[in-house]
Fold these 3 entries.
Entry 1:
Amino acid sequence: MATAKKAAKKTAAKKSSAKKAPAKKPVAKKAPAKKAAAKKAPAKKAPAKKPVAKKAPAKKAPAKKTVAKKAPVKKAAKKAPAKKRTPNAAFMKPLTPSAALAAVVGSTPLARTEVVSKLWTYIKKHALQDKVNKRNINADDKLKAVFGKSQVTMFELASLIGKHLS
């Protein structure tokens, strides 16, 4: 009785692979490898399931198209609940600048963010940004006292200012 079931499964596998052979050539090449590996009883169950699994991706392909259409809707939903960032209290605390920095920014206590923005207005007003490499700042006499060197990158700016705030 077991041999009859095995024979029925073999013929079913041959028919399904024979039907698929003209449509997909790689399936026909893989079929002999499956037969060689399908000598054990548990392995015979696997080839019967694999053609079903191969049909499933064909059904999933249209589903992927619908998912692609839904993606822009999700992006719009993500943008709607965008919250405003709350500033860090440490950056907003007013600090008094040193005498060298006060010559550029002013002597009133300012938050770190305001000091940086006033420095940038001073740099742009006096055209101290390097013409070739815009990331560099060429210091004039007032800024040399703050920076300690003649040219500074914009990334060093905040750390050099921190030394002059208390």
Entry 2:
Amino acid sequence: MAGIGEAMRTQYALLEDVLDLEQSAACQQGDTCSFKTDDSVITLTLGKEPSLKGSLSLACKAVDALVLQYYEEPDNRKAAFGHDLSLQDWHTLSTIKDYYGDVLFTSSTLSVNLAHPLLKEILAELKNEQRRFSFLCGHDSNLGSVLGALGWDEYTLPSSIEKTPIGAKLVIEKWLGSDEHEYVAMNMVYQSTDQMRLMPLLSLQNPPVVYGMQLKGLDANDDGLYRLTDFEQRLTERIEANDATPSSIRSTTYSDTRSSAAVYNLRGQQVDKHTQNAGIYIKNGRKTMR
């Protein structure tokens, strides 16, 4: 059965070409000559973030460095180690990093656990009538887990090669409508790729990009706003979903090697392994992630 990295086959090929991987010291030493699609190992340890080893992890580190080089190096050929890459090529490479983050942080079950402290803090801040502004600082993994827990619609940010650009902010605003109901706007605010590379000062004349995030299962009004009560209910449901995770679930390791054993969800119900949604399941008496 194809591994986690199968979805990155095209991206891996492009990355191998840009890195001249077959001519690299790592390959000459018999280490890494290509990125494999079936060697990923995910470890879930109670109280810690998920960790991943294998080609997807290695490719993510390489792309992370390449994207930083692209932002810092004005010469496009030098940024790509002498290769002529289009903007679409850079976006293709960046999807490796985005996919890595999705695998580890945005599945429905993992995200509600990983984002649990932040979700509680966000809900508390929204309910604090004395608060005018709150700033919570984190990493791209925090953005991914919070969005995953809230149930975001799949998105592609305009004018960016990344899903969570450097310095991106998830801005949640409270609005009072003319109907006297309170509403919420949720936007991703970030610098465009050109702004990142050219580094002009941001201003009202040169503002960052603002992209409205959409949530599955919640109805937005004509202005793209959600009722505050609906949004708070979504937060509450996701917080309670973490509290409902069985305490018997402990640490385990998931790899791309799979057997034909029956698969169960966290409620003990057997599920069809061919149609199961992303999340955590029990197989061979152990917790696995899809």
Entry 3:
Amino acid sequence: MLYIKGMFKNLLPILILGSELRTGMKLSNAQGYYRLYKEPTGYFKRYFPNQKVITSVIKDVINRYDNALESLMAQEKFPFNEEKYAEELFEQIKKDTYTTSPNTAFLIKKKNGVERMVEQLDFRDLIAQQYILKTISEVFDRMFEEGSLGFRKGISRQKSVRNGYVLKGKRYERIKGLAQGSPLSPILVNLYLDSFDEQIKQWDVKMIRYADDFIILAKTKEEAENVLSRTETLIKPDSKRYYDISFEQGRRYNSLTDTEILCIAKEFAAGKINNYISFFKQKYVKDQNLFIGELERVVKYIYQAGDLNEVRGYEGSTAKKIYQRLNNYIDDTISSKTSP
């Protein structure tokens, strides 16, 4: 089934003519034959929901999260039956009776003293969202632009994304945004920013975007400043509140001492490497534990660094090794898919 993205008003008469004449049709394997439908047909409707895939997702969640099995056994009967649980969830999605549970929220204090709310999803909702992600990610990845690196029948956006949360025993309704830690966050960010990627692609620059972080490469300083100005008009909210926040953030940064800046730099550098450590721990490759141990030692060295240049040195040298390891993963994946 083919879905055409964008405006194709001028192409429509040709598509209709080709559909009627069956242009390019080969009877041996029906190449070139297609039909146009007046009413849109859901792409995922043919195989969503799928009980076998739900079962595999349940197994993935149990293997990935230490307390998943214990929590699921507490909710269900002992011993926990993966097939039965998958069947129940499948029926709820199919009959449109699935509803989310409120997340468990708690506050953590950041380095600057500001509290940030983090939410933990109920494992049933986590399984459902991981299942949605597994179903749609491969299709949506083909839609996104190359520079971007990082719903269905039965589950509406209201049900799957905007569930409430419980904080200190009190329930709150979600007015906007997405729960911190939701597995759907990355793909929803890419969907939201896809039009932004397409706009940048029309300019004579190169962009690499990972979730909501991106780098735009220009040929000259003047071109970079011009691109920055044009980019801000695409994504910056036109509101007084935004500029007030922006001014306050700038004021806070300029008031930081050298020691505070060094501490922040350490947290950023160590955080990036820790993210890669988590990623590499999910991959089973020869000598992987040795490399993970090396990364963990670098994190310790970063926290012991005496100045910014030392932090940058550790981060830069480690980044080269990480990228080389990632390139090996890419090469191995391509080789496995192209080999007979």
